[in-house]
Amino acid sequence: MMRWLRRSPVQTFLFVPLATIAWEWAMGTLHVQMVFLLVMLWGYLQYRFCGRYRIRLGGGGPGLSGAPPERLVETGVYAWTRNPMYLGHIIYMIGVALTFQSLFAAAIAIARTVWFHFRVRRDERGLTARFGEPYVAYTRRVKRWIPGLF
After folding, report:
1. Is residue 150 part of a domain?
2. Could you give the number of structural domains in the chain?
3. What are the DSSP calls for 59-121, one per residue?
4. pLDDT of residue 50
5. Tens-digit pLDDT profile for residues 86-111
6. What CATH number does the domain containing 96 carry?
7. What is the pLDDT at residue 60?
8. What DSSP element (H or E) covers 46?
9. Phi, psi of 39 (to 5 degrees)
10. Tens digit of each residue's pLDDT (9 = 90 or more) over 24-71
11. Backbone dihedral region for residue 148 (phi beyond 0: left; psi -120 to 50: alpha; all else: beta)
């Protein structure tokens, strides 16, 4: 059970919105801007569809720690950004902050974005060791987070 609770999808897609709702309700500031639910949906669907795509083309499991990919995936959305699944997490959390007009959720999103950045750097060391020069060449062609920028 504790292992399940430590999974980043559980933390992002379950705990972040529930903690935000609880916090804002307790503070008496719970407001919902329904239009921003679309941002949450975008982030979640990006996470899900990119994960399925990577598993289908690269093998392995949904996370790098349990069953890493067997093949490097450089096509589809992975040709634009190296971390579309993690980016989906971040987009979702931004959606939570906007949906609930919550500085609390914004602070969580910022903190977890920093955490994801360091996690990605660790993942990249493992992917470099696993795939070697083809992965290094991929990192030169494709930005870590935002296509063309960063």
Report:
1. no
2. 1
3. -S-SSTTTS--SS---SGGGGT-S-HHHHHHHHHHHHHHHHTT-HHHHHHHHHHHHHHHHHHH
4. 95
5. 999 999 999 999 999 999 999 999 99
6. 1.20.120.1630
7. 86
8. helix 37-58
9. -70, -40
10. 999 999 999 999 999 999 999 999 999 999 999 999 887 766 678 899
11. left
Site of tokens 């990919």: 69
Is 134 part of a structural domain of the chain? yes
pTM over 0.85: yes
Residue 55's domain comprises: 9-141
Residue 136: inside a domain:
yes
Q: Per the structure block, which two tokens stand in for 51?
A: 């994960």
**8 A C-beta contact, residue 88 and residue 46:** yes
Q: What is the DSSP letter of 149?
A: T
The count of other CB atoms within 10 Å of the CB of residue 132 is 11
